[in-house]
Design brief:
Transporter, 6-stranded mixed β-sheet, ATP hydrolysis activity, 7-stranded antiparallel β-sheet, P-loop_NTPase, 21 strands, alpha+beta, Rossmann fold, ATP binding, 468 residues
C-alpha cells in the first residue's frame, strides 16, 4: 500500500511536492481505511486540476520512477526535468515512495540528474513512530555507502555485501536495489532479513499505472477469473455486451504486438505465476492467471496445473447474436472500462492501481458507477486506487471523504502544486461540486474572451429565467 509519494524537479514540478494517502481524523466512511502500524491509510484518492495543471505529470513521475526501479538503468539524455528554471537541468530530481509492506512502513527513494541519467543518491529506510532505521543508503557524489549490518547473518555475508557495494561505486546509472535483486539473487535468498529488498522491489513491479493512450494498457495477475465473472461485471455497466467468449490462441499470437521490453516483463511475471508459491502441485483446482491488454486486444492467461493457456477474449452484443467482436472493435469507452475492471476483479491483497484520466471516453454516470462499486468493494479488500479526473459528479461529500480529494494547480511561476481538499475545512454537508466549478478550490481553467468583442458577456441562463 502507498502512504506517500514525493516528487521534485520533474516536468511541471519544481520544489518537492508530496501526495499523501494518510487518512485524516475524519470519521466518515472509516470502514474503508487500511490500518498500517499506528496510522490509517486511504484506499481511494481523486486528483483534480485544470488542463496542463500537472495531474498527469504526477502519474508520469510515478511511472518514470517505477521504470527506473524495475529496469535499473536511466535513459540518457532525458529532458523531463523542470524546464522553467534554467538551473534545473543540472540539479537532481527527487523521487520518494513511502510504502506499507507486512504492516511496516518503508521509505524508498532516489535522486538523479535526469539530463545525464546519473543516480546521485538512493536510500531505503524503515520508518518508525519514534525512530527511523536506515537499511541502506548510497551517495555516488561523495562515494559514501552505508547499510545496516543487522540485515546480514554473519561476517561472510558482510564481506560479500561489501563486494557488491564496491561493484556499484563507479556505476552511476543503476540503482542498487534493482542490481542486487536481478544480479545478486543468492544474497537475499540465503538471508531472510534481506528479503525486504526483494519485497520492496516486487512492490514496484506490481504497481499498476494506466494511461489512456498507452499502446500496452498493462497486465495484471489474478488467482482465478472466469469469462463468466467478466461478463457479470461488465453487464452492470450497460455496455450492451451479452456474452464473453474465450478463444484459445498461441502464446506467440498473444504476445506478437507486445513491445520487447514489456514482453520480458510479462515473461518474468509468468515465471512468478509458475512458482510453487502460486500453484500447488497436488491440487488440480490450483489456478493463477494474467490479463494482457495490448493494441486493442484482450487476452487472459490461465496457469492451470503449471500449463499456460492463452485465450483471446471476444464479445457478443444484445442486438447481434452469434456475431463476435474483438476488443479493438469495441468503443473507446468499453476498451477503457475493461482496463478498469482489472481493479474490481483484482484478488491480490495490497495491490495499488493508478489510473490517469479515468473519465476519458466514459459517460459521467459510468465513471461514478465504477467509483461507487470500488468504494463498496474496498470495505472488504485491501487495495488502493488513485485517479486523476475532471469528473465533478464525484465531488460529493456523501460519497467521498474530504481527504480523498486533491487538487493540482500552478503557481505564478508556472510550477505545479499539490493541494489537499481538507485544507479548505468545508462542512460535511456542503454541496462542493458547484463551488469547485466556480473556482473556489482552484484546479479549474480561467478563460479569456478571445472570440468575443471586448466587454462582451454571456448572460447566465438562470438569470434569464428569472426575468419577467
Amino acid at each position: 500500500m502507498l502512504s506517500r509519494f514525493t516528487v521534485g524537479n520533474f516536468l511541471s514540478f519544481n520544489k518537492p511536492q508530496s501526495f499523501s494517502m494518510i487518512a485524516s481524523p475524519v470519521q466518515k466512511h472509516k470502514q474503508r481505511l487500511f490500518q498500517a502500524e499506528d496510522m490509517k491509510l486511504l484506499k481511494f484518492s481523486s486528483i483534480y486540476g485544470a488542463n496542463a495543471a500537472g495531474k498527469s505529470n504526477l502519474v508520469k513521475a510515478m511511472a518514470f520512477a517505477r521504470k527506473i526501479i524495475t529496469q535499473g538503468t536511466a535513459e540518457s539524455p532525458n529532458t523531463s526535468y523542470y524546464k522553467l528554471d534554467p538551473k534545473a537541468k543540472d540539479l537532481p530530481s527527487y523521487f520518494e515512495f513511502e510504502i506499507c509492506i507486512g504492516g511496516k512502513l518503508y521509505s524508498y527513494g532516489f535522486e538523479m540528474i535526469i539530463s545525464e541519467g546519473e543516480i546521485t543518491e538512493e536510500w531505503l529506510i524503515l520508518l518508525g513512530m519514534s525512530k527511523n532505521q536506515e537499511l541502506f543508503s548510497r551517495n555516488t557524489t561523495t562515494g559514501q555507502y552505508s547499510y545496516d549490518t543487522n540485515l546480514l547473518a554473519n561476517s561472510e555475508d558482510i564481506a560479500h555485501f561489501g563486494i557488491y557495494i564496491n561493484d556499484l561505486k563507479c556505476v552511476t546509472n543503476k540503482l542498487f536495489l534493482q542490481d542486487i535483486i536481478t544480479n545478486k539473487e543468492a544474497v537475499y535468498q540465503k538471508n531472510e532479513k534481506l528479503a525486504i529488498l526483494k519485497q520492496v522491489y516486487r512492490w514496484f513491479e506490481a504497481l499498476d499505472i494506466s494511461f489512456p493512450d498507452s499502446l500496452v494498457s498493462g497486465y495484471s495477475c489474478f488467482s482465478s477469473t472466469s469469462t463468466n465473472e467478466i461478463l457479470q461485471a461488465i453487464k452492470t455497466f450497460a455496455t450492451g455486451i451479452s456474452h464473453v467468449e474465450a478463444r484459445k490462441v498461441s502464446k506467440e499470437k498473444a504476445l506478437e504486438d507486445v513491445p520487447a521490453p514489456f514482453k520480458k516483463t510479462i515473461e518474468k511475471a509468468l515465471e512468478e505465476l509458475n512458482s510453487e508459491d502460486n500453484l500447488a502441485k497436488d491440487s488440480p483446482s490450483s489456478s493463477a492467471g494474467m490479463r494482457i491488454s495490448c493494441n486493442g486486444k484482450l487476452y487472459l492467461v490461465q496457469m492451470n496445473r503449471k500449463e499456460p493457456e492463452f485465450n483471446e477474449i471476444t464479445f457478443e452484443h444484445n442486438a447481434l447474436k452469434n456475431v463476435s467482436f474483438s476488443m479493438d472493435e469495441e468503443s473507446d469507452g468499453t476498451q477503457r472500462l475493461f482496463d478498469m475492471l482489472t481493479v474490481l476483479l483484482c484478488t491480490k491483497e495490497n495491490a495499488v492501481f493508478v489510473i490517469d484520466e479515468i473519465d476519458r471516453s466514459l459517460h459521467p454516470q459510468l465513471t461514478v458507477h465504477f467509483i461507487k462499486n470500488f468504494l463498496e468493494l474496498v470495505k472488504k479488500k485491501q487495495i488502493q486506487l488513485i485517479i486523476t479526473t475532471h469528473e465533478s459528479h464525484l465531488m460529493d461529500l456523501s460519497l467521498l471523504r474530504q481527504d480523498e480529494i486533491w487538487f493540482v494547480e500552478k503557481n505564478r511561476a508556472g510550477a505545479s502544486m499539490l493541494i489537499p481538499f481538507d485544507r479548505f475545512k468545508e462542512r460535511f454537508d456542503k454541496k462542493i461540486q458547484k463551488a469547485y466549478l466556480d473556482g473556489r478550490y482552484g484546479g479549474v481553467p480561467l478563460f479569456d474572451s478571445f472570440f468575443f468583442p471586448k466587454g462582451f458577456e454571456v448572460e447566465d441562463e438562470d438569470e434569464q429565467e428569472e426575468q419577467p
